Amino acid sequence: MIDPRFIYLALTLSAFGGGLYVRDTLRGVTSPNRVTWSLWGLEGVLAFAIERQQHVGLASWMTLMFGLVPVVVVTASFRNPKSVWKIGPFDIFCGLISLAGLALWAFVNEPTLALVSFVSADQIAALPTLRKSWLAPSTESPVAFLMGTLNCAITILTLKIFSSAGVLFPGCVATTDFILTIVIITKIGPRFRGEFIASTKAHVYRRT
Question: Mapping DSSP to helix (H, G, I), strand (E, B) and coil, where does residue 105 land?
């Protein structure tokens, strides 16, 4: 465990990563998937309310950032027409399943099942962006997800008691953000499909 005041470092990292993502969205460099980010905003705010009720402490303010940053990202996506990622059937399907998970969370009285359904809803909400990062990594900004991985790790380490209520949500977010970071930076999707190699060869051919 580390000093709880390290949560302020986590908040700074979150704000930094989120700020860069918003900047890239406004510039049209990044095209956020509105299904994912809208649900992340909703779930972050709800998770903050849960953690405050369960007296999680300073770490709960990091969770609030999980909700506020996506809200700003979605808002920014409406300011630039180039920042619009077309929503398809897969995105809608994941969005509906995620909302169903939130509905289950709201009506279930068993705390563990409610927490699992909530976290599952959050992870399902990430699938459209994970798919987009696989298909078109150039439309994403990896710094935001890298900062998300770091600030979630710091948040967990600041907890005085490692309870499921305090660890499960940021732990899953850290895992998802780490996977997204790797997928975007390595461009593993295009590489796997051979597109990256083809584009590189075409670029070399044009230069010669």
Answer: helix
Q: Can you say how many angstroms the Cα of residue 160 is from the centroid of all Cα atoms in its chain? A: 25
Residues with Cβ within 8 Å of 77's Cβ and at least 6 positions away in sequence, in order, are 25, 31, 32, 34, 37, 83, 84
For residue 24, the enclosing domain spans 4-207
Q: What is the pLDDT of residues 25-68, one digit of tens each?
A: 999 899 999 999 999 999 888 878 777 776 666 667 777 888 89
Q: What are phi and psi of 89, to 5 degrees?
A: -55, -40
For the chain, the domain total comes to: 1
Cβ pair 169, 122 in contact under 8 A? yes
User: For residue 84, which amino acid is it?
Assistant: V
Q: Report the Cα 92 to chain-centroid distance in Å.
A: 17
